[in-house]
Amino acid sequence: MKILVNGALDAVFLATVRDEGGCDASILLNYRRSERRALASKTLRGFRVIDDIKAELERKCPRTVSCSDILTAAARDATILAGGPFWEVPFGRKDGRITIAAEAERVPQGRENVTALIDYFKHLGLDVLDLVALSGAHTIGRAACHSFNDRLYNFNRTRKPDPNLKPPFLNLLRRQCKKDMDLVFLDATTPKMFDTAYFKNLQKKLGLLTTDQALQSDERTSSFVDLMGNQPFLFESQFSASMVKLGNVGVLVRKNEGEIRVNCNFINRRRK
Ligand code: HEM
Questions:
Q1: Tell me: the pLDDT tens digits for 47-89?
Q2: How far apart are CA 71 and CA 77, in angstroms?
Q3: Which residue minimizes the CA distance to atom 3 of ligand 1?
Q4: Residue 183: enclosing H or E segment and its boundaries?
Q5: Nearest residue CA, atom 34 of ligand 1?
Q6: Which CATH number fits domain 2-107: 3.40.640.10, 1.10.287.110, 1.10.520.10, 1.20.1560.10?
Q7: Pick the CATH number of 114-244 from 1.10.420.10, 3.90.180.10, 3.40.50.970, 2.60.120.10
Q8: Given ligand 1 and candidates 18, 138, 181, 218, which is best to mutate, with the most ligand atoms within 8 Å of its CB?
Q9: Cβ-contact 161, 152 below 8 angstroms
Q10: CB of 46 shorter than 6 A to ligand 1
Q11: What mean pLDDT comes out for the span 154-178?
Q12: 239 lines ligand 1 (CB under 6 A)
């Protein structure tokens, strides 16, 4: 279940941010050149759990619940299991029939500046407050060292570490990152609890990704970081509201749009 907590939240983000498809479970399609096989998706996990849920649903009520609804509900329920808030998930999404690897590569990778993040969220119909609240999902889960190892050795091609990293944290990360695919907790203090520690860590310069720490130093986002760090109720209610928004980006709901996949890994065969 732990894998699902991280995997589902991360997958719902990726599944949601496709340029045209939106929240249509295209990330679950398992073909050559699919988003799931893109480099940016390499460390995504939790697919087995989604497959198991789908198989059970197909046994009980065939062709009724889409993979995108499963993914969205799983992200919500996984958040609750980690101690986070509840939010209503509106159902009735359909699954997309298109997946393009290049679209997964457009999702922010952790080295962008705040302007790029704001622009990216804006193109999804999300604002700066959504950006900060949703980044709070990094209160759980891990990142592979390749996502941030420039900060340890060669920040902005200076051949020096990120000056924002305090020596004890820098040394800890260097010790934890022997290989590119080694994993490090995104929330350095309470990595398995859905809480406000992620934001408090940013205030103490303990953010892991460049993008995480940048939210604290940029004047467009820093006051929201402080607010969320100091007011757990505010973080929880804004996170819920922003997740509903994220889960509604570009959904397929109309009669002739998309389909209810029988197997989340593959589009349905057309009936002749
Ligand atoms: C603000 C833009 C974001 C950036 C730049 C970003 C970047 C990243 C990166 C680089 C990782 C590590 C991936 C890896 O190495 O395996 C990661 C992990 C994660 N992200 Fe984000 N992310 C963003 C927004 C979000 C949002 C909106 C959510 C959910 C609502 C989310 C949930 C997660 C979770 C749960 C993990 C941990 C995954 C695991 O442990 O397997 N992220 N993110």
A1: 999 999 999 999 999 999 999 999 999 999 999 999 999 999 9
A2: 10
A3: 108
A4: strand 183-185
A5: 10
A6: 1.10.520.10
A7: 1.10.420.10
A8: 138
A9: yes
A10: no
A11: 96
A12: no
